[in-house]
């Protein structure tokens, strides 16, 4: 029983570190970033799609529009969740002290 738990934990850790290994600049806890910023920082479309799906109220959009989504960083290791789809566009501020935002 304990060995099954430990082997499952080892697999989970292997996948977690492998998924984050490609990210060159992880987001900061409670930071809001556009999908386009995250893609520039090493996140991939699969990361954005998975994070976008975590919010059941988001509209269905194609992968090409994930760059127009505002994502929120939920922890200190770069985990993200899709916060909102920016219909007009997502404004990249380009500053670690100010969050990106939906343009009006």
**Please, how many domains?**
1
Strand order of the largest sheet: 1-2-3
Q: What is the terminal-to-terminal distance?
A: 55 Å
Question: In which range does the helix fraction lie?
Answer: 25-40%
Mean pLDDT: 83
- Secondary structure tally: strands: 5
Low-confidence stretches: 1-20
Following the backbone from N to C, one meets helices and strands in this order, namely HEHHEEEE
Secondary-structure-derived class = alpha+beta
How many helices does DSSP assign?
A: 3
Keywords: Signal
Signal peptide: 1-21
Can you put this structure into words, describing what you see?
- There is one protein chain.
- The chain has 104 residues and is α+β, with helices and mostly antiparallel strands.
- It has one domain.
- Helices cover 34% and strands 17% of the residues.
- It is built from 3 helices and 5 strands, in the order H-E-H-H-E-E-E-E.
- The protein has a 3-stranded antiparallel beta sheet.
- Strand 2 and strand 3 form a beta hairpin.
- The longest helix has 20 residues.
- The radius of gyration is 15 Å and the shape is globular.
- The N terminus is likely disordered.
Give a brief rundown of this model.
This protein is α+β, with helices and mostly antiparallel strands. Helices cover 34% and strands 17% of the residues.
């Amino acid at each position: 029983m304990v060995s099954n738990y430990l082997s499952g934990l080892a697999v989970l850790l292997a996948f977690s570190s492998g998924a984050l290994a490609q990210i060159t600049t992880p987001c900061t806890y409670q930071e809001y970033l556009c999908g386009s910023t995250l893609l520039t920082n090493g996140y991939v479309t699969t990361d954005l799609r998975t994070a976008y799906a975590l919010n059941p109220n988001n509209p269905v959009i194609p992968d090409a529009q994930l760059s127009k989504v505002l994502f929120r960083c939920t922890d200190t290791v770069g985990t993200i969740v899709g916060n909102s789809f920016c219909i007009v566009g997502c404004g990249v501020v380009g500053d670690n002290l100010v969050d990106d935002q939906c343009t009006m």
